[in-house]
Model the fold of this input.
Amino acid sequence: MKQAILTAMILGMLTTTAFAQMERERVSPGGPIDEMFWAPNIVGMSTVQSLPANNLNVTIMHNFGIMNDDIFQNFFGMDFGATVRLGADYGITDRWSVGVGRTLIHRLYDFRTKYALLRQTASNSVPLSVSLKGDLGINTNQNGFSFEDRLNYFSSLMIARKLNDALTLQLTPMYAHFNTPRDGLQDFYAVGVGAEYRLSRRWAVIGEYYPVIGDRPAGTEDAFAIGVNIETGGHVFQLFLKSSNWHTEQHILAQNSDDFWNGDIRFGFNVNRVFQIGKN
Done:
């Protein structure tokens, strides 16, 4: 718990002269809408949001233990410690970004890329934003598996529309593949649903749901999360309740065993910090 709080405080103080705080730009008349979402993830689900060229988004993601497991003794699950993912994404162009992350569970490394196929415009000449994402995960636990058996893959097509100044909705067909089968299954499908509703220029409500389609391993459940975004210029802080201990989407589809509606609720928070590297 102390390490998680300290990490958030350190990231929050990274407002040095090298990188000025970045007030978020508003949409240009008739042009692409720059702010479909405030962060690259709703909670765990990637958003259609593009990262501008030469911008670096650093993300620290935290989940704690199940809250209702002896609430007072374990302090709402926080005494179990945090599952953390450290990640960074860099905008190569205004449409294309690449990223890397490392998650504590399975000592998992993931390498991802996202490309904006379409960007919704303020004039509605383009009515939707559409982005394509690919992710390669590598389990680095010392488990005796071959390198090939440690690999997992994920792809998604993110389709979003900003309906008005407050509400953005996203529909995300997803596919995950694991080289090592679980219950004889290697391929997983879902159509994720996500939303962000802005209460003000600084506060927004967020939510996501991962309904898995087709066969799934025994004991797994559809993941759900709800939370708030707090926008501070160069940072977006996300506080949420969710029903998965995983941060990577392929594992949320294939290995989530928590049931939100049965009380398997975890508190967590993400910290996002944007740095401008060079000129746009």
